[in-house]
Give the backbone structure.
Amino acid sequence: MKSTKVIFMGTPEFAVPILEGLIATTNVIGVVTQPDKEVGRNHKLEATPIKKVALDHNIEVWQPTHIKSEFQAILDKNPDIIITCAYGQLIPSAILDFPPLGCINVHASLLPRLRGGAPIHHAIIDGEEKTGVTIMYMDKKMDTGDIISKKEYIIKDTDNVGILHDTLSQMGKELLLETLPSIIQKTNARLPQIEEEATYAWNISREEEHINFNASAKEVYNQIRGLYPWPKAYTIIKEEEVKILAGYISEEESTLSPGTICAIKKEAIGICTKDKNVYITKVKPFGKKEMLALDYINGINKEKLINTICE
C-alpha cells in the first residue's frame, strides 16, 4: 500500500490514530483540516490535532475555510484515494468524484444508526447497547454512503465519552487498515444503507447538557457519562451551576420530587429521579476545578443542602 497516494481529511484528536496508521502504511501526500482556532483568554491561534501530526511528518497541509469552493489545490495533487474522519465540513462533488479509488470515511457508529457529528456522545446518552466503527464510501449527504465494513463494540456501564472515544479511535484505525487493501484492489464489499433504520446524532446543544431529573435514573446516569469529560452535564444548585461528572444508580426508590437532594453520604450526594436515586461522586462547581463529591460536601453546609431542588 506504500505506493497508494492518499489525501487525509480530518480535524480532532479522534482522527489522529487513523492518520498515523495511514502515514505508516501508505503514501500520505497531503492533509486537509479545519482552520486554526483562537483559544484561551489571549486568543492564541492553535493548530488542530491533525495539523500537528501532519507537520511533525513534513506533510503538506491545507486549511480551507470553505471546502466547497477551495479545493483545487487538493485535486492538483492527483490522489489515488481520499480518506476522511471527523473533518467537519460537507465535501463537494468535485472532490467526491475525483480520486479513482473514491472518497472513504471512517465513522464512529454502526451506520445507518447515529449519523451526524456526535455519535459517540449519543451512543451512551441514547442508551445504545452497542456501537462501533463503519468504513463507508462518501456521497453528497451526511453519512449516507455505501458501507464497506463494520466493527462492533458492546458498550459497558462504566464507559463514558472519553473511554468510548479512545476505544473507537483505535478501532477505526485497525478497521481501516484491515479494509484498505481490498479497496485498493477493488475487491471490497459495498452495501447500501437501509434508510428506514437510520437514526441521528446531532452535535450536543447547551440544552442537552442540562440534566433532566424527571427522567429515569438510568437516563440521568447515561446523560452524565455521555457528556464526560466533555462538554459535561450540569444542574443548578442554589442558583449556582454545578457540573455533574460521575455517579452511580442506587437501589433506593425515589420518594421525593425529581431533582430533590435526598441524601448526603460521606462520598456522594443523592438526588431523586422519577424512579431511583442517583448518587453523584464527582463535580465541578462554577469557577472551580473538578473535585470529588467528598471535597464538595466538606465545603458546604450539608443541612441546608438536604431537600434542595436541583433545577
In short: The two ends are 56 Å apart (CA to CA). The chain has two domains: 5-197, 206-305.
